[in-house]
Amino acid sequence: MTATFDVINPATEQVVDSVRLVTAEETDAAIARAAKAFPAWRAVAPGDRARLLRRFADAVDADLENLARLEVLNAGHTIGNARWEAGNVRDVLHYYAAAPERLTGRQIPVPGGVDLTFAEPLGVVGVIVPWNFPMPIASWGFAPALAAGNTVVLKPAELTPLTAVRLAELAHQAGIPEDVFQVLPGKGSVVGQRFVTHPLVRKVVFTGSTEVGKQIMAGCADQVKRVTLELGGKNANIVFADADLEKAAAAAPYGVFDNAGQDCCARSRILVQKSVYDRFMELLEPAVLGVVVGDPGDEKTEMGPLISHGHRAKVRSYLPEGAPIAFQGKAPDGPGYWFPPTVVTPSGVRDPLAADEIFGPIVAVLPFADEADAIAMANDTDYGLSASIWTRDVGRALRVSRAVEAGNLSVNSHSSVRYWTPFGGFKQSGLGRELGPDALAAFTETKNVFIDTEG
Ligand code: NAD
């Protein structure tokens, strides 16, 4: 019997589609086809590979509204965010389309001969994607991998397969051979695991929870398989007394409640200098209560639902009777997996409300004494993905940016993602970098060739 998975609209709880789950045997067959397609794909002339990626980007652009509406339906993303996400895929493809013609090696002076280095593609790359940003995260894996001459098998999250399936159709329509880029909707424990264990998959790119990331890394160790990991975060938003408090408080809800807090870069711990704590909370309250939660297809909506019933139950479990709620916005009653934007004031950084990646619209606010205290609190976590620093003091901005153990820092901003700059985590937030030139290097292996010219 063929197993299928019902795709549910999290804003309505209606079934919108049913997707067939790929089996372990089908995964093996897909990997074998990808391995067979590799020699021809790596041999495609750089200019032709670039042209195919640009045509894929143009196909995404032409389909942008459809892709965005699919994501509203499948993931409950607001339409504004979903348009940005589809646009990000287009831009990432254009950025890496410039790569095939620029991916060069080196010639290093040596006595007695010529020494050459080559940037060789790896072979089949397995990309495993989470449900929180299905489109961009898929493209951060497949675009640089394809540009560097690898073939790709990609597994979307069980809950959110629709846009990945559509992206594969667009790639094939653009002329990228079917076996070069295959999307395999299925279970992590089946399809994802085969990416880890199958010897013809030469690299796994995994984005998801730190817990599963550790299993992937351990599994890859057996074959010394290359791995890039983009994992969880519990990111600090540090507000110093000399900051533009109005600006910091107005931006804070966006920093954490965007995508209903289901964002690895969500600034879910706001650390505020004691001397301005009360004033900051006064400014934060109306900003939080003003967040518009509702129909994600409505242009005015700022926050949609959580992804699933089970995920909402997990988020809810953080707020038992007597939880330190400072204030809470409003959300629709249902149907739909709604949760209101919530501000809590836990006792310290190791309180689960301040330490765990809740991955929902709950933000912890904690006071700190001075710069050293702020840095110590920001670093008192196993995560290290991103952080924001709000201050008017340039020296402090740079000092604190250097001292905070995180991969992506923003000063007077919450911006973390630009497709042309590196993205990734310190400590248990990940391994390796995506986006920018770093990602391209991560999809090649350096080969050194010495040619004796002495005869
Ligand atoms: P998850 O770890 O449960 O699943 C991620 C993907 O891995 C899914 O496709 C899932 O099917 C697959 N998977 C699950 N078990 C597997 C296994 N044993 N072997 C192989 N694959 C397996 O994560 P999620 O709940 O989908 O996503 C939320 C998490 O992703 C959060 O922790 C979030 O912080 C993280 N995330 C990180 C980044 C980043 O760039 N650092 C970006 C987005 C999300």
Automatic annotation (TrEMBL):
Coiled coil: none annotated. GO terms for molecular function: oxidoreductase activity, acting on the aldehyde or oxo group of donors, NAD or NADP as acceptor. InterPro entries: Ald_DH/histidinol_DH, Ald_DH_C, Ald_DH_CS_CYS, Ald_DH_CS_GLU, Ald_DH_N, Aldehyde_DH_dom. The active site is at 230. Keywords: Oxidoreductase. Residues 4-449 form the Aldehyde dehydrogenase domain. SUPFAM superfamilies: ALDH-like. Belongs to the aldehyde dehydrogenase family. This is Acyl-CoA reductase. It comes from Actinokineospora alba. The lineage of its organism: Bacteria, Bacillati, Actinomycetota, Actinomycetes, Pseudonocardiales.
